[in-house]
Amino acid sequence: MPHTPASRSPNTAESQIILLPAELHDAILQHLSKADIQTYRLICRNFAENSAQWLFRKFHFTSSLPDLKRLSGISKSDIRLCVKTLVWSTDRSDFEAEHVLEGLRVRELKNILGRSSQDQLQRPQAANREHAVGEGNVRANNSIGVFFLQAIFSGLPNVQKLHIRTSQGRYEMHASLVAAHLAGHPLSKLRVQYLLWKSVPAMVSLEHAIESLTSLRLQICLPGDVMARVSERPGSIPAVVNLSSLRECLGSAINLRTLEIRLADSNWWTGEDFGSSHLRLQDIIPEPNSYPYLRKFVVGQCDTSEDFLESFLRAHCENLRVLKIQSMRMHPRGSWSRLFQNVQPFLRLITVELSGYIENDVRHDTSGWALDEQLEWELKDYLLGKQTECPLR
To answer: What is the distance, to the nearest Å, from the Cα of residue 287 to the centroid of all Cα atoms in its chain?
Structure first.
């Protein structure tokens, strides 16, 4: 009898490949590019189902109406449970996200969300709770942006991480944290790549929305008028911007395991050129012992007082395992050598990374060190307890 495809046994090599277990799919998919995964999904339904989480685990979108409609469609589709990370790019236009989301009309909401929005806008789930959105504190039910994002997060229950790539950042950060909290799926990881911070009313209303975070990564940029005042007063160390609202925001993130704070390059070099300080750790971190579970601390291009940083490192030495420092200055002056010698006996670090340079004075009139490869290696060994003498002299 001729051998035809219809007479093949279900135990052939081909059928065995089709029925690969999930573990083998994962072992293969981790080595494939996004384009390859798309081709992989075309083999059969089993391959498509097992590769969905690899292809759709991260979803990129902008603040344009077509992208918002795509995002809404994903939140109601079969692949919605695969999405773990959202990347929101709003860096093409200042205040783009706020203008688009808060400017949505009911007709547009119906079109984007695919259902009637009028009654939900009038009767939100949290009508009596206030949340900080935009330039100040507004009620969540009066913010169309929060309402829209709440609907999105309700349909994406497995989203844990939000990466905001922005030219402003404050609105996106506030609205997203509040919306995810109201949806019952609070974020655990937040990264804001360019956070322009201005003086705004204290954000006490973000307390519950932000305390769920375990990882917070901020690149902070101060407004242009602040930089102008710095350049007008070279050599001064003025408190040129009110960071109390950012301080209260960080003070509510009590469950952080990872904290990264960096000052934008443009701000840092303006301060360098004019010998001025404009962002100090003690201005934005409420207390030296603010984060009892902190395991990873990354700080770059900021100023600090010797007493504050020493108290911070000592307070977190029990759990802190990763320390990364890039280009810092003492404010107004201090001693890095003394600081490291005072904290080294208490630290239990397993990873140390140092780069750039460290200076004992914000005005450059005392000693400092360029962290070249040799010095970085020696200082790293000292902080890890592999060397007995501090290399900074």
So the answer is: 21
Model confidence pLDDT, tens digit, residues 308-352? 999 999 999 999 999 999 999 888 889 999 999 999 999 999 999
Residue 371 identity (one-letter amino acid): L
Rg (CA), the chain: 25
Which are the contacts of 248, defined by CB distance < 8 A and separation ≥ 6? 202, 203, 204, 206, 286
| Distance, CA of 293 to CA of 188 (rounded, Å) | 14
- Whether residue 266 contacts residue 320, with contact meaning beta carbons closer than 8 Å, is answered with no
Place of tokens 């991260």: 58
Task: Return all residues near 223 (Cβ < 8 A) that are at least 6 apart.
Answer: 196, 197, 198, 241
User: What are the extents of the domains in the chain?
Assistant: 18-56, 214-393
Q: What are phi and psi of 225, to 5 degrees?
A: -70, -30
Q: Contact at 8 Å (CB) between 205 and 251?
A: no
Burial of residue 278, with CB atoms counted within 10 A of its CB: 0-12 exposed, 13-18 middle, 19 or more buried: buried
Residue (of 71, 136, 147, 73) closest to 104 by Cα position: 147
Asked if residue 145 lies in contact with residue 153, where contact means CB atoms within 8 angstroms, the answer is: no
Confidence of residue 186 (pLDDT cuts 50, 70, 90): very high
Cα 301 to chain center, whole Å? Answer: 17
Name the pLDDT band for 266 (thresholds 50, 70, 90). confident
What token pair was written down for 152?
Answer: 């999105």
Q: What is the pLDDT of residues 371-386, one digit of tens each?
A: 889 999 999 999 999 9
Q: Which helix (H) or strand (E) holds 357?
A: strand 351-359
Give CA–CA dist 366/47, Å, rounded. Answer: 63
pTM over 0.85: no
Indicate the SS3 state at residue 299. strand
Confidence label for 388 from pLDDT (cuts 50, 70 and 90): very high
Amino acid residing at 123: R
Under 8 Å CB-to-CB from 238, ≥6 apart: which residues?
A: 229, 230, 276
- Quote the CA–CA distance of 252 and 212 in Å, as a whole number: 9
58-62 vs 258-263, strand pairing mode: unpaired
pLDDT at 29 over 90: no
Taking Cα atoms as reference points, which of 219, 282, 220, 295 lies closest to residue 251? 282
- Residue 105, SS3? coil
Mean pLDDT of 168-179: 89
